[in-house]
Amino acid sequence: MTAVTDQDRTEHTEHTEQTEGVVAIRSNGPGGQETGEDGIEHFQAVEDAPEAGNMEKPEKPEKPERIERPERPEKPVNAEEHRLSASAAETAHATLAPTRVGHDDRPPRVKDDDPPSRTEPDGVWDDGLIARRVTEPATTGTTPLLPAESRPARTPTVPPLTYDAPLQARLDALRELVGLSRTRLDSGTLAEASRVLDEAAARRRLSGQHTVVAIAGATGSGKSQLFNALAGVAISETGVRRPTTAAPIACSWSDGAASLLDRLGIPGRLRRRPLQGPEPDPQLRGLVLVDLPDHDSAVVEHREQVDRILALVDAVIWVVDPEKYADAVLHERYLRPMAGHAEVMFIVLNQVDRLPGEAAEQVLDDLRRLLDEDGVALGEHGEPGATVLAVSALTGDGIGELREALGQFVSERTAAARRISADVRAAAQHLRPVYATRRGAGLSEEAREEFAARLADAVGATAAGEAAERAWLRNASKACGTPWLRLWRWCRDLREPPTGRLPLRAQPEEEATARQRVEQAVRTVADRASAGLPAAWAQGVREAAVRGAQGLPEALDELAARTEEPPGRPLRPGWWPAAVLAQAAMTLLQVVGGLWLTGQIIGVMAPNLGVPVLLMIAGIVGGPLVEWSCRIAARGPARRYGQEAERRLREAAAGCGRARVLDPVAAELLRYQEVREQYARVLGTRMQ
């Protein structure tokens, strides 16, 4: 290693053409690029042609011969001094970086151990390490050129994107829909809707004056060539190597798009500016064009980048060629699923210069036919839809028409909102199977009545009413019957169990039967309520019914025990006291007649058998007659009493079933109705 000393340090210079009153500008970007704000490199044309007679073209200096220097003893330099010397040299070069000066006539001093490749043909030596090349002022009195005035670093303020009232209402409805559905639908089903909400919120915070348009296409379709044709300069690499585009490259026609490109994940080294003339192109102002890798690339990372950026851009230009315009991958994977985004799509048939005669129109017609089969609406005759064009990026045919269509599209400033609207519509269509029904949701009155009737049968409401009717008749017979008959019945009741009463406890078989009836009633009403509902909501209705059915048989048994007899004494008809008095009179006649006959037999009273016998016959015949009349008269009140008992038990069973089963089922149906209304608002329609 040769030691570096102050005497041996070589001064780096660069040869420039000296012009009078002209400042030469060179940046650190490739190909004459100037790095401006937003980290985007500007492509500018530098006018270096001087007027004739104003300056003379300097002669190219001859390559200097090697300069022989006397051998000097090398001063040993340790590693630390070598590092400090190199650092000082780099600091000096960085200090001189902003200044471009003329070149003197002295030949450059070349070290003996310098390689030949470090000396350029024009005599300029470049160390290849310093980003900005500098030259040394001439010592022969040449005035150095002033440094170029750098572009001021300013951050442009652009207004954020705004959504109109209908789109904002649909976004709010989608947000409410997702919130109401989280308890019934899994996160995977709601993932697309959540992503659309997140992207809509993120896009709204960014510039509303820019339109991000991606150029996508298959391998060899010429999308990068079309990208360069629109930019007016070779930005994206083209060639026969496949894949050529390895990373997305962006080109912005105006400032303020840095945040949009950050959202796409495009680094600053891949951001460019189009070729700018004396006046900026107002036609495409606000356009941010992104060249994507091939969507059918053999590299997985390229396809993933395409899918990721296509979900974020405002619009897309699909570039197809005459050979692969009917490719199944393009139509089945992209065009068909994105048919709802037709308003923000351009379909460009490139390389039409390869088609002879009218073949271009025939291929274009066939392309329109395929798009129609995919469900992509075509924007023809003033209708909204995709724009289909035929161009040749190589010859420039159709580029002007495409540029005009893009300019009109960008100038409307509605592409981002239309893309979000299409995303919302696509998310709603994705959720349609979990919200749309074949009929109106709800539980009909007929189903409610059937459920109440099944519960009443399970609790034995009919039998309870009949038992109450028999009990009322028995009480009437006791009150209006003869004492002798009541005495006989009392003796019979002592020997046999009572009949015609509600059992306090059902037999095990009857309890099992009643439980099965209750479960069957619950299943029936759940099936009726969930009929026609989407699977997730039908499952929710059935689960609500099953939860309510837990403990329902026990609750019904307890309810039946409480309503076995009506509170208080049963109401008695008005004829009841008269019947009791009549029966008492008949008994009194029997007693009087009997005592009279007994007195005559003993001899206490004078013999007269007619009157006491008549009295006893009247009492004996009249008592049963009164009892029979009371029984006939008691049938109506007893029937009403039994019906009232049955009604109370039915109402109690229906109330218990309604509180435990029907109300939870109705709550689930109401929630489904709410999300269905929100889903209709997302679609922007009214669902029946």
From TrEMBL:
The keyword Nucleotide-binding does not apply. The lineage of its organism: Bacteria, Bacillati, Actinomycetota, Actinomycetes, Kitasatosporales. CDD domains: YfjP. Residues 1-18, 54-84, 101-121 have a biased composition (Basic and acidic residues). It holds the Pfam family MMR_HSR1. Residues 213-331 form the G domain. It comes from Streptomyces thermoalcalitolerans. The keyword Cell wall biogenesis/degradation does not apply. Keywords: Membrane, Transmembrane, Transmembrane helix. This is YfjP family GTPase. Signal peptide: none annotated. It comes from the Bacteria. PANTHER family: GTPASE ERA, GTPASE ERA, MITOCHONDRIAL. The chain crosses the membrane at residues 575-597, 609-626. Residues 85-97, 136-149 have a biased composition (Low complexity). InterPro entries: GTP-bd (IPR006073), GTPase_Era-like (IPR005662), P-loop_NTPase (IPR027417).
